[in-house]
Predict the 3D structure of the following.
Amino acid sequence: MIEVNNLHKSFGETHVLKGITTSFEKGKTNLIIGQSGSGKTVFLKCLLGLLIPDEGEIIYDGRFLSKLSITDKRDLRQEIGMVFQGSALFDSMTVEENVMFPLDMFTKQAKSEMEDRVNEVLMRVNLEEAKDKFPSEISGGMQKRVAIARAIVMKPKYLFCDEPNSGLDPKTAILIDNLIQELTQENDIITVINSHDMNSVMEIGEKIVFLKNGLKEWEGTNKEIFKTDNKAVTDFVYSSELFKKVRQMYIEERN
Amino acid sequence: MLILLFLRLESQNVFMGYLASIGNYSIMVKEVFKKPTKWSIMKNLILKEIDELIYGSLGIIIFISIFIGGVVAIQTALNMTNPLIPKNLIGFATRQSVILEFAPTFTSIIMAGKVGSYITSSIGTMRVTEQIDALEVMGVNSLNYLIFPKIIAMLFYPFAIAIAMYLGVLGGLIANVMGEHSTTAEFIEGIQIDFIPFHVTYSFIKTLVFAFLIATIPSFHGYYMKGGALDVGKASTTSFVWTSVAIIIANFVLTQLLLG
Ligand SMILES: Nc1ncnc2c1ncn2[C@@H]1O[C@H](COP(=O)(O)OP(=O)(O)O)[C@@H](O)[C@H]1O
Ligand SMILES: [Mg+2]
């Protein structure tokens, strides 16, 4: 379990996170949702230790992030996989080299052993045929899948994704969402996903944390989110025209 | 009065800004040497950078040095109106200017543009596309991974400057022969008289310092840049200005220390 206690983060005058408390469980896809600029990325970067919070604590299965020595932190990092918003693939490397990078960097495996693992992971994300291509030569959806492959190649216990389906067409987006959920269940890992996409909320929102102005406005599951009376949440949920219509139909039907 | 006060406060702010940057730059340089990347990976990175930074610059270095050497010879010849001055001065002046300044300093300013903008834009692009964050999340010391191989590759820069020195003098000789300013024998005699070996040492010490500046200042500007793709271009320009300024100041200080 990852526990987050009273997390604060400011940049100069701007107070971005104003005391967030929540927790994320194993084998579940946890969603952080909220409008652009609500602090989702900052929150995730604090979890990763890329940003140091001003106040509050992050606890990885009993390990207090702030109290870890540099070596322990390094060990923890190797249990973490991260999918960045823009994929963040190394553009000077092929797909295969990108996925192999963490293995090459941190394990003493033989080349053939690493290749086997890379093939296995690429097969899992359906990308065997793109192995020798460079990131600039493949589509956004494929780049995202490479990023996921790179994130899981070290068999992480924790997986973080920053808007994994932003910039993708709806169909590809759902494929990516489902892939992440399957990987989470198959490997029994803790997955935390940033999103502002209502489709993702519907599909994989096993736990949802709604951020607004740096505060946790609401939390619950994707079943509960459609029943809540919280004004901020309903505003967010029904900001999509489609959902607005569906809700209207639902209300009309009920009356 | 108020304007003066304002200017004073402004200049103080600007000055503090520079001081802070120099401080951050020093911290960065220290971090580059910590937590080294696995050697099998680092080795390839270094070879790639040698290819990119040194080998890839040889063409322009060769081109510039031949022509600059030629111009120095022509200028000296044209300014020798007094028939009492020995003709071997052309060779002598060419050798001195090329070895002392044109090969090490002039070439380095050009490299601050060519190599520097490559370094700033490649690291800057990695910053804005979160590739640097990706390295850090994996537990890689990104400063070491990105900048150390560039510093090591630039240790080979003095070889390029040695070529520049040789070709600069050769360019002077060619211009001298083509313009019939003095005989080849006189020119070669000029190249050899009053030769002080320490001048070459001085030049190579300078070159090594410039190499370090060319590897690290553009890296600093790329690594700590903020913003998007457009800002990568701006960072490259800023980095060129500061690298050149640093080279010129270092040149002055080293000349004062070593020859003054
Ligand atoms: N490094 C930073 N320096 C200053 N402000 C930042 C920094 N990173 C994020 N912010 C600010 O924090 C707020 C939240 O940003 P972010 O977490 O990226 O939002 P989201 O991911 O939800 O769209 C924004 O107002 C942004 O300007
Ligand atoms: Mg974001």
Summary: Chain B has ten helices and no strands. The mean pLDDT of chain B is 94.
